[in-house]
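pinging the channel bc i need a second pair of eyes. not urgent but kinda urgent?? the chain im working w is below, pasted from the shared doc
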Amino acid sequence: MMPLMKPKRSSQRRPRISSGIPSRSLETSTEFVEATAEVRGKYLLPFIYRKQIRKLNGDPGMGDLIRLSLEDKRLSGWGLYNPKSERRIRTLAYTPEFPADFWASTLGKAVDYRNRFLQLSGNTDAYRLIHAEADGLPGLMIDRYGDVLSAEVFIAGMLQRCEPILQHLHERINTSHHVIRCAPETMKQEGFSILPHRSSGCPEAVNIREHGVSFRIEFEEGHKTGFFCDQRENRVRLAELSKGKHVLDLCCYSGGFSVHAATAGAKSVTAVDLDESAIRLARKNANMNKANIKFTHADIFPWMRDMVAAGKKFDVVVLDPPKLIHNRNELDDGRKTHFDMNRLAMQLVAPGGFMLTCTCSGLLGTDDFLKLVCASSMQAGKPLPKSSDEKALQRAPREMRVFHRSGAAADHPVGSHAPETRYLDAIWCRFE
């Protein structure tokens, strides 16, 4: 193989990222710097922490593409470097030489998977186009919403290349506009600061379709990239099981489950969320589809307690809360919150009814979440006689059967080298 030419690195420091979005070319001839990181361990992982770098040769800057090697030189690769982050390197390629067509080839594979293999365009114009490490592009999520690509960026090196990546995708799939955003915690961890950015002429909102149902995506108000495409297949399955049923949608956000259930023929639908802007958008989505839904702006905990006290029951209950565990320090509190909300929600399921309960907290773990849900059912039955401890929770177990387990839709694949790209767990349980 012909050696790649590596230009000498300029002595002039790159400008620090601030407001606005700097851009790097995807041309491989401009990528390289004279820097190598020797990494401890037996494998090159998708992300390499500062303490895992045994030796750094050269002076790479934020976002530079550098060569990686294990201590024993058995394996080499390439990654994006950031001296400001604890996760210093995000691995891009596991090859001795950086592939000349890396960016075009990687993006092309992601597009072909959605369009040719999954053939998503027949049922929807809203789907995950780039799913970070699972698509070979760490720290980058891109969703397609009609004519707009919405990107959420988690690392500095990918932010620098986001504009040309989006332009490349526009040419491949005939989209015109894009939105780029970063979460505040990401910017703090990565050591940069930007403002949300929309391409020139990009609309503030678009309407998309999903299995015959329409939704409005508002980019300024929306969470993450604007809509949760990962629940698409779960929404369709729940709608099929909701015909003629009384449905409760807890943490309804923009009404994904609610609107699908109502348009599929649910007898009644009640939707609850604490986010006032989410309720406003959910009402718009219901009106677009002529769906009769009762929306309530409330904290689900006191609302559920009131409904339990009133003896209210629903045939179908959906519990899809936002991410509750962002890091390992939040595990204990997150588990308790999940347990408490599941225990309360289960008390609202009518005999013979079912509940769909979800978590997008990947740190909780698939098996741990199942154990938590099962433990919640052990305290979700009828009240027991009062004990001497008035503060103790006194409820009997409730008979529950898990009849299905699912996760994110197929456009959110899991990379074999990055199992953390599986983050969504959904448990379907029926109550006798």
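so Residues 28-93 form a domain with the Archaeosine Trna-guanine Transglycosylase; Chain: A, domain 4 fold (CATH 2.30.130.10). and The CA atoms of residues 134 and 415 lie 4 Å apart. — does that match what u expected or am i reading it wrong
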